[in-house]
Amino acid sequence: MTETVEDRYQAELKQVDIDHHKPTAGAMTGHIVANLVVLANKLQQAKWYVKGPERFALQPKFKQLLVTVQRQRDELGECLLSEGEIVPSTTKAFTEYTMLTEAGQNKYQNASWLVDKFIHDFETSNLFVSRAIKLSEKEDRPALMQYLTSLLFENRKTIADLQAFLGNDARTGLDDEDGDDWD
């Protein structure tokens, strides 16, 4: 018997539900993909609307980060596919799996507020990246682990750069918050 498109999709939904109740590296990485989609939307909004004297420094930075985040999403999706995983690919899935929030009124916030929110968005994303690294190591998925480790470094570098814009050290306001409670 040949599976229909609907049969395949229903099987995917069932497997995704199973994987999210007992997290796998693939499921956790799906959350990262969703976070990258929302982060790209937020960066686009900030690039378009950032105001004040900081605009001249931040608009190119937001543009560069937008390109980076879109590249990461594509590469991470390719990595998941090469591991035999399903990549979230619909607005519904992105909305369901992201841990980031967005709001239209954010375009009216000042530059420092936007930068601070991006710092926390990258930090939130790193919670999922760190967990996915541990799961990929446990599941013996070295290629996925290697990509995720590079992603973690890129995110930490971005956090340090954005913190510097605010006049802060790399971990200011982050290490004293609740840590990774996934263990």
TrEMBL record:
<dbReference type="Pfam" id="PF00210">
    <property type="entry name" value="Ferritin"/>
</dbReference>
<dbReference type="InterPro" id="IPR012347">
    <property type="entry name" value="Ferritin-like"/>
</dbReference>
<dbReference type="GO" id="GO:0008199">
    <property type="term" value="F:ferric iron binding"/>
</dbReference>
<dbReference type="InterPro" id="IPR009078">
    <property type="entry name" value="Ferritin-like_SF"/>
</dbReference>
<dbReference type="InterPro" id="IPR008331">
    <property type="entry name" value="Ferritin_DPS_dom"/>
</dbReference>
<feature type="domain" description="Ferritin/DPS">
    <location>
        <begin position="32"/>
        <end position="171"/>
    </location>
</feature>
<protein>
    <submittedName>
        <fullName>DNA starvation/stationary phase protection protein</fullName>
    </submittedName>
</protein>
